Automatic annotation (TrEMBL), chains A, B, C:
Chain residue ranges for the region called Disordered: 258-290
Residue ranges, compositional bias (Polar residues): 261-273
Family affiliation: Belongs to the TMEM38 family.
PANTHER family: TRIMERIC INTRACELLULAR CATION CHANNEL (PTHR12454), TRIMERIC INTRACELLULAR CATION CHANNEL TYPE B (PTHR12454:SF5)
Function recorded in the entry: Intracellular monovalent cation channel required for maintenance of rapid intracellular calcium release. Acts as a potassium counter-ion channel that functions in synchronization with calcium release from intracellular stores. Activated by increased cytosolic Ca(2+) levels.
Protein name: Trimeric intracellular cation channel type B
Length: 290, 290, 290
C-alpha cells in the first residue's frame, strides 16, 4: 500500500481546492456568463442583478444540492471568503479597464488550463455530494447518486431556472430533454463514486478520484482542442439503449400503433412533432443497426 | 366497541398500502402520463427524462408536502423499494413489447379496479399528511389541512410545475383557478380528518377512514362509468358560495362600480376579459337563483 | 442613558406590531392586490385562489425568508390569529357590500396612515430577519443582509413568482433588473441593521430603529403626497456607481469592443437589444457627467 502510485494518488486526493482551483472554476463560470448576449449590458445597467447571476453560475450546484436536501440555500453565502473571491473575479471580469481579463482569457492555453482545473473541482464536488448525502440516508444509494449529480452539474439547471424566471429563456421541451456532456459525465461519476462508497466497487477512493479526474480533464481538453461536441459515450449509450429498449424494434408495428393511440388524446398540432421525432428516432436506430 | 362494524373498519384502517395499492397508484399515474401526447416519443428519445417525469407523477404529493414542511424533497428517493417498484411499472408500461400493458389497461374493469385502489391510497395519504403535520405544529390546524391536501392531491401541482419548467405547458389563469374534482374532494377529506384529529369531530378515525374511502371509490367509479365530469358538490358549493358571497347580488350596481374602478388601473386589453368574466359570473348566479 | 430621547426610542422599539400595525400592513397589501385588473373577478369566480394570493401578498416576505433558511414555508400558517386577521381583512375588502372599504380607503388621509404604519412594520421585519439569520450563521453577515432584505421586501418576489406560475405575468428582463424603491430602501436598512448587529455601527439598536423608521415614513408619505416616483437615492446611487464602475468611461472604445465581441456569440436578434441598451446607458452616463 506504499507504492509510489498510491502515494501520488493519495497526495492528489488530498489537494485543497481552495485558492487556485476555485479561482479557475469561478473564472470559467463568469466568463461563460459574460459570453451570453447582453450580459455586459446588464452588468452596466444593474450590477447587483449581474452579480447575483454570477453567484448562481459559481455556486449553482451547491445551491441545488442544498435545496434537494432541505438545507438552507443561503449556506453558500455564509462562506464569506469564497463569496468575496468570486465577487472580485466577477468584478475584474466585467469591469476591468480595456477588458484585459477577457483578452487574456481569449488565449487558448489559458482556457485549457482553467477548464482543466474546473474539471478537477467537479470530481471534488461529486465526492462531497455523495459523502454528504450518505450522512442523511445510510443506504439511500439513489439519493447519493442524485445529490452527487446535482452538486457536480446542477449549476446549469439553476441558471436555466433563473433565466426562466427572468423571462430571458424561452424553454423548449427538447432543450430540457437532451442531457449535455457535463451532465452525462457527472452522472457517470456520481454512480461510480456511490458504488465505491457503498463498497460495491473494490477500489480505493483516491485511486478512483485520480483516474476519474484524469478522464475528465483529458476528454474536456480533447473536446476543446478538436472543437468537437461529440460525446465519447455515443457507442456506450447506443449499446445500453439497444440493450434496454432496442430489442423492441422488431415490434415496430405494435409500437407505432401505441404511439398513434396515445396521439389521439392530444391536439393535432402538439402531437405531430413527437410522432415525427419518434419515427426518425426509430429510423436512426435502424440506420445505426444496419 | 366490539361490534362487527368496528372490527371491519378497524381491520380496513390497518390495511397495508405497500404492495398492491401502491402498484395500482403507480399504474394509474404512469398510464395518465403515457396518455399525454408525445410522452411515448419522449420515453424513446430520452428514457431518463421520461423516468423522472413518471416519478414526479407517482410521488408528486409526497414531494410537495416535503417542500411545504422543509423536509428533503429527495426523501422519496430514499425508499428504494417503492422507487424500484414504480420504475419497473414505468418500464413495462412504456417498453413492454406489443404494448401489452396498455392493451390490458384499456379494458374498463381493469381501469375501474386500479382507479378504485388508487382512491384508497388517497385516504391513507391524507391521514398521513394530517398526522405528520400535527407532529410539527400542535394546534396548527390550517397547516394540517394544507399538508393533508398537498399530500393527497399535490401531484397535479408538481407535474404542472414541471411542465411549466419544461415549457410543455402554457399556463393560463383560469387553468390555475378552477380546482379539479380530486383537489376538491381531497380538500374536503383533509378538513374532515383534521377536525377528527383535533377532536372536534366525535367519530373514531377508522370509521371515518372507511366511510370517506367508500365515498371516494363510489364517486370515482360512478364518474368513470357514466363518463361524467359533473362534481357531486355542485349543490353544496353553490349553497356555500351564496351563503358567503352571494348575499351581495342585490348590490350588483355597487359591485359593478367597484369593478369598473379597479379596472381603471390596468391596461384596457387585460381588463376587458375579467370584467366580462365577472359579468357572466353574476349572470350565472342570477340564472341559478331564478 | 436615561435621557428622554432614549426613553422615547426605547419605548418605540418595544411597540408591539400585533393588532394595529399588522392590520394596516394587511390592508395595504390586500388593497394593492384588489387594484390589480381582474382581481375582483377572480375573487368572485374562485374565492380560494384569491384568498391564497392575498395570503401571499400579506406574508410573502416571511415565506421567502423561510425558504432561504430552509424553514417550513407553511410556518406562517401556524399563526392562526394572524391568518384569521388577514383573511377577514381580505373578506371585507373584496366582499363588503357596496364596497365600503375601498371607498373609505380611497380617502388620502386613510391611505397615508395605513402606508405609514406599513412602513413601520418593515423596520420590525428587517430587524427580525437579521436577528433570526444571526442565530444560524454567527458571522455570516452576507446571509444576515440577504434574510433581512428578503423578509422586508420579499413579498413582491413571491407574488411575481406566483403570477409567473399562474401565467398572469409575462416576465421581462428589465422588470427583473430594476429594483423598486422599497427593495432599495430595504436593502439599505438591512445593511445598516446588520452592521449594527455585528457591532460595526456604534449606535444603539432602538435609536437606529427609530431613525430608520422615521426616514421610511417620511420618504413614503412624501412620495405619496407629491405623487412622485423619483427615488431620493438617485444622487447617492449615481456617485456610488461612478465610483465603482464609472471610472472606465474613458475606456469606452475598449468597452465597446468587448461588447461587440460578446455580441458575436449570440444570435443577431437577441443581441441587438442589449447593445442598444448598453450604448444608451453609456450615453446617459455621459450626459450625466457633462
Amino acid at each position: 500500500m506504499d507504492s509510489p502510485w498510491d502515494e501520488l494518488t493519495l497526495a492528489f486526493s488530498r489537494t485543497s481546492m481552495f485558492p487556485f482551483f476555485d479561482i479557475a472554476h469561478y473564472l470559467v463560470s463568469v466568463m461563460a456568463l459574460k459570453r451570453q448576449p447582453g450580459a455586459v449590458a446588464v452588468a452596466w445597467k444593474n450590477p447587483l442583478s449581474s452579480w447575483f447571476t454570477a453567484m448562481l453560475h459559481c455556486f449553482g450546484g451547491g445551491i441545488l444540492s442544498c435545496v434537494l436536501l432541505a438545507e438552507p440555500p443561503l449556506r453558500f453565502l455564509a462562506n464569506n471568503t469564497n463569496i468575496l473571491l468570486a465577487s472580485s473575479i466577477w468584478y475584474i471580469t466585467f469591469f476591468c479597464p480595456c477588458d484585459l481579463v477577457s483578452q487574456g482569457y481569449s488565449f487558448l492555453p489559458v482556457q485549457l488550463l482553467a477548464a482543466g482545473m474546473k474539471e478537477v473541482t467537479r470530481t471534488w464536488k461529486i465526492v462531497g455530494g455523495v459523502t454528504h448525502a450518505n450522512t442523511y440516508y445510510k443506504n439511500g444509494w439513489i439519493v447519493m447518486i442524485a445529490v452527487g449529480w446535482a452538486r457536480g452539474a446542477g449549476g446549469s439547471i439553476i441558471t436555466n431556472f433563473e433565466q426562466l424566471v427572468k423571462g430571458g429563456w424561452k424553454p423548449e421541451a427538447n432543450e430540457w430533454l437532451k442531457m449535455s456532456y457535463p451532465a452525462k459525465v457527472t452522472l457517470l461519476g456520481s454512480v461510480i463514486f456511490t458504488f465505491q462508497h457503498t463498497k460495491h466497487l473494490a477500489v480505493s477512493r483516491h485511486n478512483l478520484m485520480f483516474l476519474y479526474t484524469m478522464f475528465l480533464v483529458a476528454t474536456k481538453i480533447t473536446m476543446m482542442i478538436t472543437e468537437t461536441a461529440t460525446v465519447p459515450f455515443a457507442l456506450f449509450e447506443d449499446a445500453l439503449s439497444r440493450m434496454l429498449f432496442g430489442w423492441q424494434q422488431q415490434f415496430t408495428p405494435c409500437e407505432k400503433k401505441s404511439e398513434t393511440k396515445s396521439s389521439f388524446n392530444g391536439t393535432g398540432s402538439s402531437t405531430s412533432k413527437p410522432i415525427a421525432v419518434a419515427s426518425d428516432t426509430v429510423k436512426k436506430k435502424h440506420t445505426k443497426k444496419t
